[in-house]
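Minutes, project huddle
Topic: does the predicted pose make sense with flavin-adenine dinucleotide bound?
PN asked that the exact inputs be recorded in the minutes so nobody has to dig through chat later. Recorded below.
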Amino acid sequence: MSAPAPTPSTSAATRIVIAGAGPAAQALVAQLDRARFTGTITVLSNRDDTPTELLELAMLPQVSVRFGQPASHIDAVNRTVATADGMEFAYDQLVIATGSAPVASPVDGAGQCLSYATIDDAPRVAKGIQKVARELGRRPVGILVGTGAAAGQAEAVLRAKGVRPIRTTARPAAIIPAVVSGGSASRQAASAVVFEDGSSMTGDLVVLAEERVSRDGLAASAGLQTAAGGGIVISRDYRSSVPGIWAIGDAAAFDGVRLGLLVAAASAAGACATQLLTEASAAPALQAAA
Ligand SMILES: Cc1cc2nc3c(=O)[nH]c(=O)nc-3n(C[C@H](O)[C@H](O)[C@H](O)COP(=O)(O)OP(=O)(O)OC[C@H]3O[C@@H](n4cnc5c(N)ncnc54)[C@H](O)[C@@H]3O)c2cc1C
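Predicted holo structure (C-alpha cells), as shared on screen:
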C-alpha cells in the first residue's frame, strides 16, 4: 500500500521524512516549524502510543505523524522509505532518528522487573518503588542490574526513592518473581536474580538498567556507513555517507562516539534543521538549472 502522494518532487516543496519519533525527531520538527519550513514533514513512529508532545507536533499543518509505522526499508536510489505495513513514503531528505536499543535480548522473567530503559521510565520506576514500599511497610532492598550511564542514573532514582540498591554488573540468567499476599494486596514483583553459575541475589525488587547501543540496523541495511561500536557515521553537519540521508540523536555516531544525551540530541536537531533548510532553498534553483 502506498501513502497518499505528497507534493510532486518537481515542486519547490521539499519532502522531509523522519524515521523515529523520540526527542531528537521532535526537536527537529520543532526547529523546522520555528524556521517556517514550507515543505512537508512525515514522522514515522514505531510506537502505538501517542505522547502529548508528538500529538502537538502532529497538529502542525505541514506535519504528519504515522504512529505504529516502523520504517523498515530505505531505497536510497529512488529516495523512498517503506514501513513494516508496506506503506511507502517518497522523500527529498530523510533523517534517521531511531535512537538506541538495549545491547542484549531481555533476560528471562524481565517482564517482572522495573525497567529503566528510556528516560521516560524514571517516573514509572519511582511509582513502582512506592507501591512495593507501601506493601512491605519498610524501606525496600533493590537489586540493580546494569553497567554504564543508565545504571548510574537508575541508582540515583532508587536512592532518591528510599531504596537500598545492591548493584550487579554480571548479567543474570533469569529473574524469579515473588508473590507476596496480604489480603487484597497481592504483589507480583521480581525478588531474586539467578546467575549462570547457579548463584543468586535476593531483594524486594529488581531494576534492569542495561547498556544500550545505537539502533542503526535500518541504516546499515540501506548501505549507510556505521561505526564499529554502533551508530550511523555522520560528518560534522549530520550527513550520513549516503546523499539525502542524515542522522541525529542516539542513532548517530560522530568520530565513533554516541553522545547519548538529550542536550546533544537537541543541538543535533538544531544544526541538522539549518542544513535541511539550506538544501530545501537550494533545490528549486538546482531544478531550474537542470
Ligand atoms: C534509561 C535512560 C536514562 C536517561 N537519562 C537521561 C538524562 O537524565 N539526561 C539526558 O540528557 N539524557 C538521558 N538519557 C539519554 C536520552 O534519553 C537520549 O539521548 C535521547 O532519548 C535520544 O533521543 P533520540 O530521539 O535520539 O532516541 P530515542 O529516545 O531512543 O528515540 C528514538 C525513537 O525512535 C523510535 N524508533 C526506533 N526505530 C524506529 C523505526 N525503525 N521506525 C520508526 N521509529 C523508530 C523509538 O521507538 C523511539 O521512540 C537517558 C537514556 C536512557 C536510556
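Observations noted during the meeting:
- Residues 58 and 161 are 35 Å apart (CA to CA).
- Confidence is low (pLDDT under 50) at residues 1-11.
No decisions taken; revisit at the next huddle.
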